[in-house]
Design goal:
It holds the Pfam family DUF389. With 313 residues, this protein is α+β, with helices and mostly antiparallel strands. The protein is built from 13 helices and 4 strands.
Length: 313
């Protein structure tokens, strides 16, 4: 279940209540008249089934509440109520399968901005990858995969493509095209200093076979990227964020960037080129698979809405 709060102008309150009362996925409807201060108006609260959220929010936005008032959602871990149980049973589909599109757009936008925090995580991940490559440590490479924040912008691009939101595509692209070069340049400086001082010796790169998988690009790399992109988008759209950790560990985006830097310092230009190819294949594969999954889920959800049971009178 989700808890919905809507700040509503008084002249729209009656229509908003009608929408919520009419939908079978609504429970615990409460109205507070005149309590909203900024913007002024009424406050409407209700618990709604997750699978009904997208349709309800779309209807409320049709009243222009997203501009004249405000709509917020928060997840409910527990709802002990017969009314809540009935709402979930009456709503079409399953809660775990439902996509709340406004939530997805908001989350994608938030996690795809080129911020100092994003850049810091990406740089640290790239540095970890470089250290893992130099020390022949697959465990460190895995650590770099987990720390890397690049899935957020990739997901935003996929969401933007499917929903035709150019702002999300641009925002995700800026984060990637700006973040990766900066992280790689910083990593290059650290590796050069480390190699000059003997702390990080790149001379034995050709002997570090434990991490060869990072630069060995091929059809298997594309398959893994496609599967990771699909799993990542399923995780985001079903609110099962724990699965994202597995997605991070399965793809070699940041490790490929780190390997390219180390290979360049070592003069291994062929491996550097292959690593760049690995990075590109992973980025494209993740976005493509995420967009396909999102498209399929959108079509499936639309078909379930058309088959929704009759609303309450």
């Amino acid at each position: 279940m989700l808890h919905l709060r809507a700040v509503c102008p008084p002249d729209r309150t009656g229509e908003a209540i009608r929408i919520l009362r009419a939908h079978t996925g609504t429970a615990h409807l409460v109205v507070h008249h005149g309590v909203a201060v900024a913007p002024e108006g009424d406050l409407i609260e209700a618990d709604i089934a997750r699978e009904a959220a997208d349709e309800i929010i779309e209807s409320l936005c049709g009243l222009d509440l997203d501009h004249t008032g405000g709509i917020t959602l928060e997840a409910l871990d527990t709802a002990v109520s017969d009314a809540a149980d009935k709402a979930e049973e009456a709503a079409p589909g399953e809660g775990a399968d439902a996509v709340v599109w406004q939530e997805l757009v908001g989350r994608s936008g938030e996690e795809s901005r080129l911020t100092w925090t994003f850049q810091a995580f990406l740089t640290i991940a790239c540095l970890l990858a470089a250290v893992g490559v130099i020390t022949n440590s697959a465990v460190t490479i895995v650590g770099a995969m987990v720390v890397g924040p690049e899935f957020g912008p990739l997901a935003a691009i996929a969401v933007g493509v499917v929903l035709r939101r150019g702002d999300l595509v641009k925002q995700g692209a800026v984060a990637l095209l700006g973040g990766f070069p900066i992280a790689m340049v910083i990593t290059l400086g650290v590796v050069l200093v480390g190699n000059a001082t003997g702390v990080l010796e790149v001379s034995k790169l050709a002997e570090n076979h434990e991490v060869d998988f990072v630069y060995q690009v091929g059809i298997a790399s594309l398959i893994v990227a496609l599967l990771a992109g699909a799993a990542g988008m399923l995780s985001m759209t079903s609110a099962k964020s724990a699965a994202l950790v597995g997605v991070f560990i399965s793809v070699t985006t940041v490790p490929a960037a780190g390997y390219a830097v180390v290979a360049a310092v070592a003069g291994q230009w062929e491996r550097c080129l292959y690593s760049a190819g690995q990075l590109l294949v992973n980025l494209i594969g993740i976005v493509a698979a995420a967009a396909i999954v999102l498209t399929l889920r959108r079509r499936g959800q639309r078909s379930r809405v058309t088959e929704r049971p009759l609303s309450r009178g």
